[in-house]
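On clarity, I found the account of how folds are encoded harder to follow than it need be. Since the whole study asks how a given chain folds, the encoding of that fold should be made plain. For the editor and my fellow referees, an illustration may be useful. An entry of this sort, consisting of the sequence and the corresponding backbone structure tokens, reads as follows:

:::
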Amino acid sequence: MVCVVVSISVGFVMEGWPKGTYDGLGILLSIFLVVVVTAISDYRHSLQFRDLDKEYKKVLIQVTRDGSRQKVPIYNCCCGSRRTASGSDIESCICNEKANG
């Protein structure tokens, strides 16, 4: 933004009102376009991530807790739960701080 102010100021002093401001206004327009395109891209990515996160939360896994098998959301798998996979037990789920706290 400093470059815009300097460019407009120098252009105005050197070439006068309309001609001297073209470079500065071009820089300002370029900055504006980059900011808008980046914001739109980030917003679209956040929407995609939100949709993927919703799908991930729907995943149910089968675990053994207190000697009985239960289907729980993947976010509720906590340390000490034994995950069942095709008839055999996997030692434990990944520790999930949210599920334990």
User: Anything to note?
Assistant: The chain has a mean pLDDT of 81.
